[in-house]
């Protein structure tokens, strides 16, 4: 039963994080509108959400809008109290032209903010990323917080990272110049794992899939901070209404960074025979560095070999009242959902 008449727009409804945001908003009784590039996708997205346990599906509506165009956004935000701007260009490897990722991310964010301000939206929650905080820096004992910004041209900053940095900076610049009474909050998750949506594998779930499939010959000497997608969604929903969240950035992590080989060890410890292809060996640093000369995929890895990034989630816990799952829970949930959906080899 619908108990909350406030309407929320979630951009990019077919996405991993957006889908989990929609599920939680509907469960809490909000009216939810979401964007897709074409309304032909509505039935497929509804089917994915229903499979994931959607309740109050009659409170969900769809509208067509694309980050690359300003059209459609006025209709999308009309009558909305809040906007969760989750949509972002797909993170593709081997990007030939960085602007193919950067321009739609930055311009799309501005399309959404302008439309939201014009429609009298109270607050926009923007999905940024740890890529906008903890990349391109020298290797020190520093603990990363919301006060940090990544070095745009620093080592290990790829096109996706640049798109997140520039889109978030553009959002804050817009707010200071012409945001009016509208509020902005940004959410910066680390590597996102957890239950997959439909047949799509997004975010850091690829690490789990490739491990289970036997596609990883071994793990580099790299440490990864992880957060569960369900906790990323709950942070967005909390940031929407908590008074103290206005004008703030929130770094979202499930805990300290863990060694990539620990991801494999977690899978083997909990999944039995399903984890038989998961590697146990470590890839020597020199091999990773040589691979980085030829493969963009390895460059960001090579930049952070043997470096454990310290990340604080204290602010999210304190201001949002946020309580995340353990990183291991996200890894296991990711694997179990892929196995259940036959997304890994038998």
TrEMBL record:
| Keyword terms of this UniProt record | Oxidoreductase
Q: What are the residue boundaries of the NAD-dependent epimerase/dehydratase domain, all occurrences included? A: 8-245
InterPro entries per record = Epimerase_deHydtase, NAD(P)-bd_dom_sf, NAD(P)_dehydrat-like
Residues in the signal sequence: none
List the CDD domains hit by this protein, alphabetically: AR_SDR_e
Q: Does the keyword Oxidoreductase apply?
A: yes
SUPFAM superfamilies (alphabetical): NAD(P)-binding Rossmann-fold domains (SSF51735)
Residue ranges annotated as coiled coil are none
Gene Ontology terms, MF aspect: oxidoreductase activity, acting on the CH-OH group of donors, NAD or NADP as acceptor
Q: Which family does it belong to?
A: Belongs to the NAD(P)-dependent epimerase/dehydratase family. Dihydroflavonol-4-reductase subfamily.
What PANTHER family does the record point to? NAD DEPENDENT EPIMERASE/DEHYDRATASE, STEROL-4-ALPHA-CARBOXYLATE 3-DEHYDROGENASE, DECARBOXYLATING
What is the name listed in the Swiss-Prot or TrEMBL entry for this protein?
A: Aldehyde reductase
> Taxonomic lineage of this organism?
Bacteria, Bacillati, Actinomycetota, Actinomycetes, Streptosporangiales
